[in-house]
Amino acid sequence: MWRAGSLDAVTGRVRTVITCGIALAVVAAFPGRPAGALQAHTVAVTLVAGQTQAASGFNFNGYAAGDLTLTVPLGWTVRIVFENAGPLPHSVAVLPYSRRQPAEARRPAFRGAATPDLVSGLPRGAQATFSFLASRPGTYELACGVSGHAAAGMWDYLIVSPTASAVTTSIRPSAPLPAAAQDRGAPTGESPAALPGNILIADAGNNRLLEVTPEKRIAWEFPRPGDLAPGQSFVDPDDAFYTPGGRTIITNEEDNHTIAIIDYATRKIVWEYGHPGHPGSAPGYLNTPDDAYQLPDGRIVVADIKNCRILLLDPPPAHRIRRQFGATKDCRAAPGRFLYPNGDTPLANGHLLVTEIGTRSAAELDLATGRLLYRVAFPVAYPSDAQLTPAGHYLVADYSRPGKVLVVTRRGKVLWSYARSSGPGALDHPSLALELPTGNIILNDDYNHRVIVLDRKTKRIIWQYGVTGVPGGAPGYLRIPDGIDIRPATFGR
User: Fold this and answer.
1) Of 46, 213, 343, 480, which alpha carbon lies 20 to 30 A from 331's?
2) Of the ranges 162-171, 187-196, 399-408, the best mean pLDDT one
3) Which of 18-27, 93-102, 117-126, 277-286 has the highest mean pLDDT?
């Protein structure tokens, strides 16, 4: 609903409610009207924290990073009515304006000009009211005091003017108008055309797999009630991939120390390897398995991280290790050894691209001979799940905060990178990035609880599933998504 400012004829007070779009309505309703004509010296302003997905939810009334400016005359009393509509705790205080937003809250600029629990914030649905006298002219800001929130964009301008005769609000010309029912997971201007088809998400923190359409509809989910047999568990699916046979999905449950194959049609686990909840290195055991793939001939490969080995397993229903690369628990950078391998991507030539955390590199492994053909060094802190691009380069995620995504040559020269140190575009422990047919990049941004598509040229987020920084299990939300795959056109046919 659009609501304009209104004059209370009894008290003579102006009440300005800044809701979606109301900033424009207030300006139109009181263009230059002198304060004397209003017979009022108090303005009441309602600020709604996290009202829309603008700035990934770090906004007041849909405006962030100074997009909204509230101007009040010097000497007026300002009454702030605060409501938290967002899922995270929020607060608000009137602070001296700072060009660079500090991580921690500062002392309010006026006595009493802050909500209670300024640093810890108020929970969703909470309300608070405070008043202060705008006794000093200057430029201030209405900012959230919870650590990091103002730096993420949760602030707008407050100007105390010695020359103003009325309360006005204005919007930065480049600021988008917030929508009342904006998609909380959507960047502005995104399109389903960013994806070639459905994507598979290993939603690790929710102990589930999701297949999501480009329009963000959940097309398939596992497990549903009744999908697991008595005694079966499904915990922490770290990755999930469509299998070459077109009928099943393979997943590694990293912290459950197992691999599972799931029949897509029946939603039943048809094969498992490992002992759920029990890490080990003896035959039949795994310790933190990562990136389980099924090869076209039915064999299965997995990076067994803490055992520092790559396993090649016979095709199901067998449970036999055909071959092992690396020496069990001999974790070091040496010939015939691996230093915590966390990726083993199958290549078109039948080899594997093995990513190692400890050496910050990837190497091509010949499954027939066990030889490493070459090694690619990555200028990252924590390489995760390197992929070979169609152009023959190497795409890798840096599992760090802030994280980044790089494309490098075999010699380690960086050809392309995405790295944001702050704001809604910053990454928080991304673990897998894939190149789409368009050349754009899809990745799971684990601790931002989202899957995003990056435009390769503009480096802008053009599609997103999940709400940035907000974990959840409802439709449109994720909790530590740790793996993705793109559904092949031939899958299920």
Assistant:
1) 480
2) 399-408
3) 277-286
Say if residues 349 and 366 touch (Cβ distance below 8 Å). Answer: no
Which DSSP category does 60 fall into?
Answer: B
CA dist., res. 156 & res. 154, Å (int) = 7
3-state secondary structure of 478: coil
Contacts of 149 (CB under 8 A, 6+ apart): 58, 88, 90, 121, 143
CATH class (in words) of the domain with range 6-171: mainly beta
Could you tell me if 464 and 450 are in contact, meaning their C-beta atoms sit under 8 angstroms apart?
yes
Residue 73 has pLDDT above 60, yes or no: yes
Position 107 confidence tier, pLDDT thresholds 50, 70, 90: confident
Range with the poorest average pLDDT among 43-57, 139-153, 295-309 = 43-57
The rounded distance, in Å, linking the Cα atoms of 163 and 161 is 5
**Maximum Cα–Cα distance for the chain, whole Å?**
90
Question: Sorting pLDDT into bands at 50, 70 and 90, what band is 21?
Answer: very low
Q: Global pTM?
A: 0.65
CATH of domain 192-486: 2.120.10.30
- CA nearest to 48, candidates 38, 61, 35: 61
In this structure, are strands 42-49 and 14-17 parallel, antiparallel, or unpaired?
A: parallel
Rg from Cα positions in the chain = 27
**Looking at the predicted structure, is the pLDDT value of residue 24 above 60?**
no
First to last CA, the chain: 48
Domain boundaries, the chain: 6-171, 192-486
C-beta separation of 96 from 109 below 8 A: yes
Quickly count helices (H) and strands (E) in the chain: 2, 34
Whole-angstrom CA distances from 172 to 125, 157, 176, 181, 345 are 28, 11, 9, 21, 47
Give the C-alpha separation, 226 to 221, whole Å: 12
- 22 phi and psi, to 5 degrees? -70, -20
The three state secondary structure string of 127-183 is: EEEEEEECCCCEEEEEECCCCCCCCCCCEEEEEEECCCCCCEEEECCCCCCCCCCCC
What 3-state class would DSSP assign to 343?
strand
307 is written with which tokens? Answer: 């055992």
Structure tokens at 187: 């960047």
**What is 419-470 written as a DSSP string?**
E-SSSTT-BSSEEEEEE-TTS-EEEEEGGGTEEEEE-TTT--EEEEESBTTB
